Amino acid sequence: MIPIAKRIDCDQPLMSMRNETVESLPARMAIVRRSVSSAVTTYAPVIGFLAALVLLGIAFREHLDFSQQPLEPYRMFFELLVAGLVISLLRSKVGLVTYGMFGPIVISFILIESGLLWGLVLFVNVFLIALATYLVIQPFRLGTAHRICALVMTVAIAITTFHIMSDNGTLPQEVNALQAFFPAIITAWYADRFARELTERGWRAPAVRFSWTMVAIVAAYAVVANGTIVTWFMQTPESWAFVFAANVYLGAQSSTRLKEYLRFSNVYGQSRFSVLRASVRARLHNARARLRGLFGAETSRVEPTSVMAMNRRNRLIKQYNPQHLYPELDKASMKRAFHGTGVPTPETYALVGSLSDLSTAEEIIDTRDEFVIKPDSGYGGEGIIVVNGRTENGDFETSKGRKTPEQLLAHTRSIVEGQYDPMGLEGVAVIEGLVHPDDQLLSIAGQGVPDVRVIVFKGYPIMAMTRLPTEESDGAANLHMGAVGVGLSIADGKALGGYQSTNKWFDDHPDTGVDLEAFYVHNWGQILDTAVMAAEVSRLGYTGVDIVVDETEGPMVLEINARPGLGIQNSTFDGLLERTEFVEKLPDSFDLKSPGEKIELARTWDRVDWTEDAIELEAQWARTDADADRSVRTGDPDHERKRESADGETDGQEEVIAR
């Protein structure tokens, strides 16, 4: 039986570790040598670096008189260090979502120099001025360089004004320090990010992120302003190596963040206290297992829950999604790959990669009534405009309201100039055909373009959901905007109930009233085939494939996601971690299965909840397949019925049940 990672029952003692395989002494010594060699390769560089830090600390202690506080002139650098440590803990262990990592560290210096009250007043005022500037220049759709330049100019003038007002006594002297003003320049970047999210996603998402950013800034200020920790760190250079090692250790752990205990509370199925207790016991067990493994003992790792947390997902992505593939994963590159390999995807009218290509975009806008304009980068649906038709006066009805041809062309230009590129670099505007969704999911949602997200791991589809637009999401199939995610069974595409990112669970669609547990998605086999094919073309080991079912063309790939979100676990009421570990524990021979075989195996495993012996299930499936083939050769009239029974599918399961 394949050893699937165990989970701790909070009310049961840990399993005994006395089930190691008894081997000969030479074999054990070989295992020990391999373990030690692997450990040396991994840990020797960082141990050497820590040793250098220790020696540096000793040298400081030997050559400086710390009774005279020799490092006090350089206190600012130690404040930066401590602020960075605080914010990194808030992000990685608590789960705060902030605008960047470096930004909150720098902004905290405004509070340190000006005090909490006037520092917040200065920051918020400069932020609002920059935000107002963005909204004023937004109709002109400036490129990234000129847009950021305009914001920085406004912020610089505002800071100068505040400085003069402080000199004249209009504002208190607390805001007169130049050290407080220079960090405020970064608020131009904050305003740009906030306004872009506001335009694309509404108020809720950017407001929540900005609020958590403020919490992180104030927390960093509170720790640094106290001075005790900073002073201790300055006065004990021997501690530098220890703090660095602690940071590396914490960053290497794939523990569940505190926020995720709340986010996935229904999936855990236990009290939050029980989950925390199980997590601690799992850590202790795994630490002992690692030590025993160094001495050749065959041990097993345990997990406290089946839920995949963000830190664990990031490690999985790092392992299975090589960095060198990322430059080829933008929408434009994947479009070329899909068309070149036969993966069904909406027709591409143009890839506008430079200002000289705008004439092509203008021709498409003039001659076509339906199309989609999207940036090749960006996330969460940013920059996507769906054009549904042309009005009598030549304007267009779009997902962003009525637009003129000139406005659509200006939007295309802003994409090319890098407005939606994460680094502000020049982008590519993808202009593609409009998908007309199949009636089934459209009748359930009542509006928009519903899609299906399939998580594919090592070629196996392991989890799926359909995202249904709502009135709250304004017709968009984006969970963060209010769409409903409905979990789907990998085995047969059966709906499992609905979830909204505002922590609401639904039995019925909030707008149409359709039962969200009583339908099977049509063309399920084709959807899985398409998802696995797209994942194979992308060469990603762990990916989320977004598929829409066109009324005439069938399943078509909209997008490949190298970092799919974790909200699908709430939609399916199940954890991803159990399924990824199931696949990871498979013998190497399973990597050589064909795409069709991997899909059939995944559907078989899903029927038994990914818990039974994979090899035995494969054998049963193979026997069923062989029996069906023999029935075909011998003319058995019941072979189709037998095959359907083995697959767990009936004609009734392919019918949508709707009110």
TrEMBL record:
Compositional bias segments (type: Acidic residues): 647-659
Domain ATP-grasp positions: 335-591
SUPFAM superfamilies: Glutathione synthetase ATP-binding domain-like (SSF56059)
GO molecular function list: ATP binding; metal ion binding; ribosomal S6-glutamic acid ligase activity
Keyword DNA repair: no
Residue span of region Disordered: 622-659
InterPro entries xrefs: 7TM_transglut (IPR025840), ATP-grasp (IPR011761), ATP_grasp_subdomain_1 (IPR013815), RimK-rel_E_lig_ATP-grasp (IPR039523)
Keyword Lipoprotein: no
Compositionally biased tracts (Basic and acidic residues): 624-646
Cross-referenced Gene3D superfamilies: ATP-grasp fold, A domain, ATP-grasp fold, B domain
Superkingdom field: Archaea
Residues annotated as transmembrane: 42-60, 80-110, 116-136, 148-165, 177-195, 207-234
Name this polypeptide is given: ATP-grasp domain-containing protein
Species of the source: Natrarchaeobius chitinivorans
